[in-house]
Amino acid sequence: MKNKKIKKRVTKVEWLEKALEVLERDGIESVKIGLLARELNVSRSGFYWHFKDRQDLINTMIKYWGNEYTDVVTSNIKVLSGAPKERLYETMEMIIEGNLTRYELAMRACAETDSVARELVNQIYKIRLDHIRATLSELGFEGEDLEMRTHLFVCYHTWEKPMFVNLSKAKRLKWLKLRLDMLTSR
Prior knowledge:
Blueprint: H1 12-26, H2 33-40, H3 47-50, H4 54-74, H5 77-80, H6 84-97, H7 104-113, H8 115-138, H9 143-163, H10 169-174, H11 176-184
């Protein structure tokens, strides 16, 4: 009897996670079915069980990123309960603790090269802005002041880790309350 190699089954999430890793490491041009299959040590045919084609993978990957790295905060019961200032702090803490900005640079680069990706990434950024805007509005901010604080919050918390790579996690966590007070004081 021949010894047959048992094919490993790979879930949709495993394909998406590998695609995100490749995106971060090598850029969108490297997110290809063959490369992903090799890195997952499976045949290409398993890919088509989950996705129609490469574009479907990229669109699904961006939506997955939106869910895992944005909706995880904006739909979180702990974040949604409590006073507005507490919700902002909880959001800031989740971003750091969950390493939720891991793929920011890669996603922005992806959005620069593909109009569909750009639209999807912009939708996710809109969700982030709307979430923070609503919370800051509850604190009484309005107009240009509200918009500036909203954009400042999202911009800083999206780009802090990719921008300041030498800033330790301990230091980032230590500065949370200081930054929250700065963003919410009049």
